[in-house]
Design a protein that fits this description.
mainly alpha
């Protein structure tokens, strides 16, 4: 099930005073019904299938789907996020291709749109210009922002944000031009074909697992960074920021839940001060660094880290406890 989550930057101007009403309530911006219906169908089918899946007779399909899930998360975290949005490290062409293919398995919108959204998010975090502004509610930050027209401030700032580095990259330009085909093939067609062809998994089992369960899992894991990690947790690095440290999100996203650290130091390729066993993205980047495919890995200096914790932290960091 392919869902069109592409951001709309060609909307007519909408004044902040406008309100849009429907049987669901009153909203700041108009609802996008095709996305609401698509997301609803996706999640209903995925949840229902999880409950009726015959785990005893089809155990390996879930292992396989989880493997694709991890590959997708690496494409988001290692590629769209840490590499192309924040430029926290550099890569050689073989790894760039791997990251683009991995990102294609997510079924999200293009790298160019993802980077634009995330740069706007960091520059105008938790304001009306933030695409998934947490101040509009937990559900809005999680998925609602994809189910309604964008706030006029998001559209305005999205047009102003600099993404020339993405537009000037020939490989990303090619990927963006044909992204609908990349997404269709690598997110839905190829992952659904492999289990039936390699070990005789029933086609319906493979399609439901990969095109619904896995797809929904990737989307929701990623969305928790916008919702849970802006709502629950402590702020050891900068108490003035809304993003928090959330270990559940770090587990679900394989390392993106140390969000207070990340917003304080967005250029750090680790997105965390500490390396846990489930920080798959950081481990993968360091593996490719040893291969020579990833280089110029940026980190915050210990001195800057210490001063930031002492000056801005909420006192929950171990360093703060030692100095108090």
């Amino acid at each position: 099930m392919v869902i069109d989550n592409s951001p709309n930057f060609t909307l007519p101007a909408i004044t902040n005073k406008d309100k849009y009403k429907c049987f669901l309530g009153e909203f700041e911006t108009p609802l996008v019904w095709k996305n609401i219906i698509s997301h609803s169908i996706l999640h209903i089918v995925a949840v229902c299938y999880i409950f009726i899946h015959d785990y005893k007779n089809h155990p390996w399909i879930m292992v396989y789907a989880y493997t694709i899930f991890v590959i997708s998360i690496f494409g988001i975290n290692g590629g769209a996020h840490r590499l192309w949005t924040h430029r926290s490290y550099k890569v050689k062409t073989p790894l760039k291709v791997i990251l683009l293919v991995s990102y294609s398995t997510t079924g999200m919108y293009s790298v160019l749109d993802w980077v634009r959204d995330h740069r706007v998010h960091h520059k105008y975090s938790d304001t009306n210009a933030d695409p998934h502004n947490i101040n509009r509610g937990f559900l809005f930050a999680h998925v609602g922002w994809l189910c309604m027209k964008r706030h006029p401030d998001v559209i305005k700032k999205g047009r102003e944000i600099d993404i020339s580095d993405i537009k000037d990259d020939p490989l990303i330009r090619f990927h963006t031009k044909y992204y609908q085909w990349f997404r269709l093939f690598f997110c839905f067609v190829l992952p659904s074909m492999i289990p039936p062809l390699l070990w005789g998994e029933p086609w319906i089992v493979s399609i439901l697992t990969n095109s619904f369960v896995k797809y929904a899992a990737v989307l929701n894991a990623t969305w928790t960074v916008n919702s849970l990690a802006h709502y629950f947790g402590n702020k050891p690095y900068d108490k003035n920021l809304r993003p928090t440290q959330n270990l559940l999100v770090a587990f679900l996203t394989k390392g993106e839940g140390h969000h207070n650290f990340h917003h304080a130091f967005p250029w750090d390729y680790r997105a965390s001060e500490f390396l846990h066993m489930f920080h798959v993205t950081t481990i993968a980047i360091e593996f490719f660094h040893k291969l020579g495919w990833a280089y110029d890995l940026k980190t915050v200096s210990p001195e800057v880290l210490r001063k930031t914790i002492e000056r801005c932290g909420d006192g929950t960091h171990e360093l703060s406890k030692l100095t108090n």
